[in-house]
Amino acid sequence: QVQLVESGGGLVQAGGSLRLSCAASGRTANIFNIHAMGWFRQAPGKEREFVSVINWHSGETLYTDSVKGRFTISRDNAERTMYLQMNSLKPEDTAVYYCGADDRLGRSLSSELGEYTYWGQGTQVTVSS
């Protein structure tokens, strides 16, 4: 099994920045099988939606249109940690942010919830206007 722990959420004014982290731990064999990690978010009363994903080995990235140019996803392979730098935050970015791990080796980056095997518990991001 793989455990994912998010951190870095909080309250920030519109236009501000936050950096989220997601640390992965667990059996080495399971960690090795992770080929991508992604960020999703869920606002009150809405479904969980895709934000960004990064290929753990190549560094290839994918973003949803609403965050392009404002958010940057990155990873530290040695620390088994993924990051989401969020700049120019807007009130509509308010949500619980979740990280997920995709262990479908050889598959392309995915924005689909069902393609992710492991999930963290989430971290709240609140952007005030």
- Residue stretches low in confidence (pLDDT < 50, at least 5 long) are none
The pLDDT mean sits at 95
Radius of gyration: 14 Å
Please state the overall shape, judged from the principal axes of the Cα atoms. globular
Q: Approximately how much helix is present in the residues?
A: under 10%
What is the straight-line distance between the termini?
A: 40 Å
Structural class: mainly beta
Describe the structure.
This protein is mainly beta. Helices cover 4% and strands 50% of the residues. It is built from 1 helix and 11 strands; from the N terminus they run βββαββββββββ. The chain has one helix at 28-32; strands at 2-7, 10-13, 18-26, 36-42, 49-55, 61-63, 71-76, 81-86, 95-102, 118-119, 123-128. The strands form 2 sheets. Strands 2, 4, 5, 6, 9, 10 and 11 form a 7-stranded mixed β-sheet that branches. A 4-stranded antiparallel β-sheet has the order 1-3-8-7. Strand 4 and strand 5 form a beta hairpin. The radius of gyration is 14 Å and the shape is globular. It starts with a strand and ends with a strand. The model has no long low-confidence stretch (mean pLDDT 95).
Fold blueprint:
Blueprint: E1 2-7, E2 10-13, E3 18-26, H1 28-32, E4 36-42, E5 49-55, E6 61-63, E7 71-76, E8 81-86, E9 95-102, E10 118-119, E11 123-128
Features:
129 residues, mainly beta, four-stranded antiparallel β-sheet, 1 helix, 11 strands, 4% helix, globular
